[in-house]
Amino acid sequence: MHLTYMQRAVDLAQKGTRLAYPNPSVGAVVVCDGNIIGEGYTNAYGGAHAEVNAINAVKDESLLSRSTLYVTLEPCAHYGKTPPCANLIEAKKIPKIYIGCMDTFSKVSGKGIEILLKAGREVHVGVLEEKCLELHKRFLTFHNKKRPYVVLKWAETQDGFIDKDRTVDVLEEAKPTWISNELSRQKVHQIRAVEHAIMVGTKTALKDNPTLTTRTFSGVSPVRILVDRTLKVPDNYNLYDGKVKTIVFTEREVASNNVLGKKIDFSVNILPQILEGLYQENIQSVLVEGGKQLLTSFIENNLWDEATVFVGTSVFGNGVKAPDLKIQPQKQSVVKGDLWQHYSNI
Fold first, then answer.
1. Which of 92, 109, 142, 316 holds its CA 20 to 30 A away from the CA of 322?
2. Which residues, 6 or more positions from 290, have their beta carbon under 8 angstroms from its beta carbon?
3. Which residues of the chain register pLDDT less than 50?
4. Omega prior to 176 cis, within 30 of 0
5. CA distances, 29 to each of 5, 38, 239, 241 (Å)
6. CA pseudo-torsion sign 343, 209, 178, 162
7. pLDDT at 175
8. Is 131 left (phi over 0), alpha (psi -120 to 50) or beta?
9. What does the pLDDT read at residue 171?
10. Neighbour-count burial of 279, counting CB atoms closer than 10 A to its CB (0-12 exposed, 13-18 middle, 19+ buried)
11. How far is CA 61 from the centre of its chain?
12. Is residue 61 helix, strand or coil?
């Protein structure tokens, strides 16, 4: 039954993924005599953690002293926005704790387990570990590699193009060239709702004038990232509308009050600078949506963790060639005629 209870904790954690940033979205379940008596997941940042919510959901607190707690990630051991969860578990006298995976964040990293063991608790680590590591991959990558978890995304035609050859006068209406179908585009918005931030380069912003929001899917829109060396994107474009937090990486001073400007040196490799800037802003994951040059830079520098590609039904014959990952997709499925492919670089 241990796997069943931990799976429930994993399912709970997935409800809070986007809202929990920059905390990990953890799931927790309290079990007594074979029955779940309390469960919870991490609230929006600054709110209660999963263990607190699960313990508080137990109506008869006297049952805690003979209960078992299942939690997807090692309980925290430090004071942040909230007190340490390991101390709460100890105080509530919960005798058995099953943990999905350890927290490698330096302020925790075994310290939560140590608190519980010193208190005489029975602690088991590694239940559904692979699933829990997958669940917390953004948080763990952020703290282990000191950069956001990077997801690449694009749509390409049957003959391998991501765009037609086109130029757009900024005085004219810019709009995207659609390759994927409506259902695939809705899936993209679902993906956006999971990631902490979304990034595009100058050409994509000029040609498409994107909003980069989750407008066709119920969820929190990601932080918008624009890489624009000389600030070519006009300030009346959607990325400057102030509706979502937006960061612009540039070599110039940003005058708009609606975005946060970050100056970087474009005479050297910009990607380490961008990722360091996002790390400093506590951005745990970023979805890179284009264009070709930006996507290829991440691939060539091996600074990506996964990629999601939609292959549409159209054929362009010529245009802008799609990036080449040089590996086979890990999994794929059909989305109303489009082929969705998922690649892993972990």
1. 142
2. 154, 162, 200, 201, 204
3. 170-171
4. no
5. 7, 6, 41, 42
6. negative
7. 76
8. alpha
9. 44
10. middle
11. 35
12. helix
For the chain, the distance separating the N- and C-terminal CA atoms, rounded to the nearest angstrom, is 30
In our burial notation (b when 16+ CB lie closer than 10 A, e otherwise), range 124-157 reads eeebbeebbbebbbbbbbbbeeebbbbbbbbbbb
- Bridge partner residues of 339 (DSSP): 311, 334
306 token code pair: 């996964």
DSSP for 80-110?
A: SSS--HHHHHHHTT--EEEEEE---STTTTT
Dist. CA 279–CA 266, nearest whole Å: 19
Class of residue 255 by CB neighbours under 10 A (exposed 0-12, middle 13-18, buried 19+): exposed
CB 54 within 8 A of CB 38: yes
Residue among 236, 149, 160 nearest 199 (CA): 149
Quote the distance between the C-alpha of residue 327 and its chain's center: 23
Q: Decide: 192 and 225 in contact? Cβ < 8 Å.
A: no
177-208: burial string, b at 16+ Cβ within 10 Å, e else = bebbbeebbbbbbebbbbbbbbbbbbbbbbbb
268 vs 276: CA distance, rounded Å? 14
pLDDT for res 170 = 46
Q: In the structure encoding, which two tokens stand for residue 323, read together?
A: 């990036």
> CA 265: distance to chain centroid?
27
d(C-alpha 179, C-alpha 200), whole Å? 17
Rounded to 10°, the helix 270-280/292-300 angle is: 90
CA dihedral 119, 122, 127, 132 (to 10 degrees): -10
Structure tokens given for 150: 């990077």
Here the tokens at position 279 are 């790390």
Among candidates 265, 285, 165, which has minimal Cα distance to 223?
285
Residues carrying an active site annotation: 51
Q: Which tokens belong to 168?
A: 């757009």
- How many residues comprise the chain? 346
